[in-house]
Amino acid sequence: MNVEFDYGKIPLSASVLEKFDLYAALLLEWNKKIRLTGYSTLKEVRNHLILDALLAFELLRERLPPEIIDFGSGNGSPGLLFALLAPSCQFTLLERVTKKRIFIEYAASRLQIANIRTFPSLTHSIESPFILMKAITLGDLFSDRLIQKHASPPYTLFRFGHDSHPACIPISSYAITGGIDSWGETKTISLSESIFQG
Question: What is this structure's pTM?
Answer without folding.
Answer: 0.94
